[in-house]
């Protein structure tokens, strides 16, 4: 499993293939971070 922590705007999040990527939105130091498990 690979983990990637990235800060993305909503426009980019809406383009992600959520059915193929396990996404988890977390808060890290006050920033919204996307955890991708592929």
**What is the radius of gyration?**
10 Å
What percent strand? over 45%
What is the general shape? globular
The arrangement of helices and strands along the chain is: EHEE
Distance between the termini: 6 Å
* Average of the residue pLDDT scores: 69
Q: Give the strand order of the largest sheet, numbering strands 1, 2, ... along the chain.
A: 1-3-2
Uncertain segments: none
- Largest sheet, strands/sense/barrel: 3 strands, antiparallel
**Helical residue percent?**
10-25%
- Alpha plus pi helix count: 1
Number of strands: 3
InterPro entries: P-loop_NTPase
Q: How would you sum up this structure, described in words?
A:
The chain has one domain. The protein has a three-stranded antiparallel beta sheet with strand order 1-3-2, with no helix packed on it. It has one helix spanning 10-13, and strands at residues 3-6, 22-28, 31-37. With 38 residues, it is mainly β. It is 11% helix and 47% strand. A hairpin with a 2-residue loop joins strand 2 and strand 3 (31-37). It starts with a strand and ends with a strand. 0% of the residues are buried.
């Amino acid at each position: 499993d690979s983990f990637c922590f990235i800060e993305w705007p909503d426009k980019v999040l809406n383009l992600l293939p959520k059915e193929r990527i396990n996404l988890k939105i977390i808060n890290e130091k006050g920033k919204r971070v996307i955890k991708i498990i592929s």
